[in-house]
Amino acid sequence: MTRMRGFEICCCVTTIFIIILVAIFTTLALPVFKPKNPSIIANPVGLENIQFGGSPNVTLNVTLGMVVTIDNPNYGSFKFTNRQLMLITMESLWQKFRFRQT
Q1: CB of 53 within 8 A of CB of 63?
Q2: What is the distance between the alpha carbons of residues 54 and 75, in angstroms, rounded to a whole number?
Q3: Boundaries of domain holding 84
Q4: Region at 6 (left for phi over 0; alpha for psi -120 to 50; beta for the rest)
Q5: Together in a domain, 23 and 53
Q6: Are 71 and 63 contacting, i.e. CB atoms less than 8 angstroms apart?
Q7: TM spans, by residue (predicted)?
Q8: In a 3-state reduction of DSSP, which class is residue 42?
Q9: Are residues 93 and 49 in the same domain?
Q10: What is the full per-residue pLDDT of the chain (102 aa) written as tens digits?
């Protein structure tokens, strides 16, 4: 009987220990590993290759140099592959542009 009693005590202590570890891990991991939004700052560098078109339709072709700074407060890395610019005027989408990374 003493062997069985010792086994029961060992199982209870182990179960309580595992429950405490899971509670501590959950309490610490959720706030620490919660994903945060990155801070994205776009600074225009300058205009290049400005070209105006004539009649009957007026066209404008401009190369806009930008420096985009991304501050990622998360522990993981940040990699972007979809490089797209959306030009929005007066609360409506006007044009989408793809751009290249230099």
Answers
A1: no
A2: 52
A3: 39-98
A4: alpha
A5: no
A6: no
A7: none
A8: strand
A9: yes
A10: 577 888 889 999 999 999 999 999 888 877 777 778 878 888 888 887 888 887 787 777 777 777 778 787 877 666 666 666 666 666 665 666 666 665
